[in-house]
Automatic annotation (TrEMBL):
The keyword Nucleotide-binding does not apply. This is DUF4440 domain-containing protein. Transmembrane segments: none annotated. It comes from Diploscapter pachys. Gene3D superfamilies: 3.10.450.50.
């Protein structure tokens, strides 16, 4: 009986928070390519109307327009020639309507290296499209 209960709980937990790497990997890859390609209107379309981006301990940006302006300013401040590597990545599906992404990152700039963590929550909207609801990052050095 205990074995059946453990199997039931384990399978329920798997449906609540399962590794759905393919879907989220594809979404995050598309998002990253658009951000680094400076395709701002396409990036903007990936955010939920009530999305929030947080630079941990510093500032929060509300709504797609403000988020895109922040991304543009980061690009301007960091300059060209940056290369980012994400590692320790986690891709999880939380039920039917939410996805969670986490990674640590290193960004090599011409004059220094930035390191930190980054995470996102995606939500399926009423049309069935996945939109970023929340993303948060830190710059730890």
């Amino acid at each position: 009986m205990k074995i059946l209960l453990i199997l039931l709980i384990s399978s329920l937990g798997y449906t609540i928070a399962k590794d759905d790497s393919k879907l989220l990997r594809d979404l995050f890859k598309q998002y990253s390519e658009r951000v680094y390609g400076k395709e701002y209107e396409k990036v903007k379309s990936m955010y939920d109307e009530s999305a929030v981006t947080v630079e941990k301990g510093k500032k929060a940006y509300y709504g797609p327009e403000e988020i895109i302006n922040a991304i543009k300013n980061y690009h301007k401040d960091l300059g060209d020639g940056s290369k980012t590597v994400n590692y320790n990545e986690k891709f999880l599906q939380l039920g039917d309507s939410f996805l969670y992404y986490y990674s640590d990152y290193k960004t090599q700039l011409t004059d220094r290296q930035l390191e930190g963590s980054y995470w996102q929550i995606w939500r399926k909207d009423k049309n069935g499209d996945w939109k970023i609801l929340h993303d948060e990052f830190s710059i730890d050095n």
